[in-house]
Amino acid sequence: MKKFLWKILFLWAGCLPLAATAKSYSALEKISGPELKLVQIIQAQSGDDFWALDRRGILFHFARGRWTAYPIPQNDRLAGFNAAAVGRSEFLASGFDENWHTRFYWFRNGRWWKDNLELT
What we know:
Number of domains: 1
Strand order of the largest sheet: 1-3-4-5-6-2
Structural class: mainly beta
Helix content: under 10%
Shape: globular
Largest sheet: 6 strands, antiparallel
Order of helices and strands: HEEEEEEEEEE
Mean pLDDT: 75
């Protein structure tokens, strides 16, 4: 019980960047987990089911003791990623390109979709 409470406290502090590493992996590839790179927890159902995003645009899902990586498509050479949960396992993410234009992506049903939002 004490270990479970520590996990919840740790996840609650997820708004703070955490140390973890990531390499570029294709979607749905099982990995050992993010290590030694900065990630931010963006959604948590429990200590055994949560989502995190790193600064390189890789979304990580930890569930049932396994990590899965879902990299944002990098056709636009994006940087400076942020994401917000909009539902269970659904996210809106943004990053800026080399011309400092913001690009938006939706994550739904295990896939990333580019969103052409008009910003005026």
